[in-house]
């Protein structure tokens, strides 16, 4: 980093420039305002004497645990179809046998992201005859170089999966409020941690659960009505000083 001061006609070198920025504000005090999941777990443990436990049926599909499925070597698509095909939650969220076989199982078995070619001859999500996942409608508009890979391990100096959630202060007004957020190490959290977040009262924070499903009888118009309701409930929760909003699809089923 280099700064050229045209008014003073001086050049400020890297170390001096960073020291000036670091000393300009009480950054160390601001960082103490950060909230982490460990803080929420500790508070929950003190209040309820135990961390929440999850029902077995949440982590299983058709009575066959994910771990058991992952332990089967050489499993083919037909076997997966018999094992997973009867679970209506897969079709409800647009997951296919191909997604499970080519993406999820390799990650479960090897703890690594599944590898594949960069080419993709599948039609765009907006032109698909099926109902693709919501994520498939978004494509990156830049050329990504894969060597070195963009990941939080080999490039942790410049890249991180950390996700701050909660009320966001004005970026143009530096202050401690910008640090007073819940910092997640990555965007995916366990079912146990989501229950901890739901029940949190740490630093007087509270969360609001908003149902994002709608009745099947309402038909296609029900989606528009549900979106309006979700927006209204979210705005009302923000006005009532809820720091965290949880959009829940737990009520989804045959009729929702």
Automatic annotation (TrEMBL):
Domain (Glutamate synthase central-N) ranges: 89-254
Cofactor: [3Fe-4S] cluster; FMN
Alphabetized UniProt keyword annotations: 3Fe-4S, Amino-acid biosynthesis, Flavoprotein, FMN, Glutamate biosynthesis, Glutamine amidotransferase, Iron, Iron-sulfur, Metal-binding, Oxidoreductase
Gene3D superfamilies: Aldolase class I
Example GO molecular function: glutamate synthase (NADH) activity
Pathway, per record: Amino-acid biosynthesis
InterPro entries: Aldolase_TIM, ET-N_metabolism_enzyme, Glu_synth_centr_N
GO biological process per UniProt: ammonia assimilation cycle; glutamate biosynthetic process
Family to which the UniProt record says this protein belongs: Belongs to the glutamate synthase family.
Protein name (Swiss-Prot/TrEMBL): Glutamate synthase central-N domain-containing protein
Source species of the chain: Timema monikensis
